[in-house]
Amino acid sequence: MRRTRTLAGIGIAATALLALTACNSGSPSNPGSTDGGDAGEDSTWFEVATDVQLEGSPTFDAITERDKVVIGVKEDQPGLGYLDVTTDERTGFDIDIARWIAASLGYDEDKIEFKPIASANREQAIVNGDVDYYVGTYSITDKRKEQIAFAGPYFITGQGLLVAADNEDIKSEDDLTADTTVCSATGSTPIQNIRDNFPDVPTKEFDLYSACVEALLSGEVQAVTTDQAILIGYAAQDPDNLKVVGEPFTEERYGVGLAKDDAALQEHINTLFTDGGDIWQAIFDKNLGSSGIEVTQPAVD
Ligand code: GLU
Questions:
Q1: What local confidence, expressed as pLDDT, does residue 45 receive?
Q2: What's the topology of domain 3-157+252-297?
Q3: Of the four listed, 67, 154, 171, 192, which is most buried by Cβ atoms within 10 Å?
């Protein structure tokens, strides 16, 4: 994985979207410009499917009943799941994956409710039915599968390290010691990995990675650890003060979290990912194309 300093400045021209629509006609939800506007300004750039039936999906029944889809997301992870509080605009690779799924179910942007849910609270939110599905840097693990199901994977990254730009001591996970406090999110796979495999390294945890970044900037911790795709987004926002070091040292396979008893929705989303043509690539290019991250769409499980 390479790193660059810029993550912003992304967008797909309407013409490119229309070309994609033409290439993929007949698939349940193709990106398409409804008003000829730029995708960066128009977040409703997926063609919304009509007359969708999803036999045997309790989640889809609940969505139909309330005529709205409720999606759990992150909103402090630039490039992946981000809410700009000044414009109220949500952006990111995960957010567009979430919108693509909603469109395939027949739901446009104005019938989506995004709910921010922190890492530690995802399984419970899904089990409780507080969200219909969750798209937010959510690694597929056997432990989580005891409570919920995953569609995907739709993205693969790995655990990395973010340090202060002037830190010359920590160049990789091998440089973590009893004197380097590492911050990560409660309930995340990276904090667990540090505890299990780096037992001498002190940890600090918060609900949100953005709180860890604050702690790093103030000198309270010496590193933030989580998926490199997330860390690259923070470094790109503040390249004068932050840098990503080393190579990814785990494999994190992102899935869409959903209710364990909903095989119909799981299969629907997996089919969408498999048959989506160029749409995954368009979503990647729009949100992470200038990030330096090099990945291709993974095959679903
Ligand atoms: N992908 C990891 C996880 O699911 C870290 C990122 C996150 O906490 O969302 O735990």
A1: 64
A2: D-Maltodextrin-Binding Protein; domain 2 (3.40.190)
A3: 154
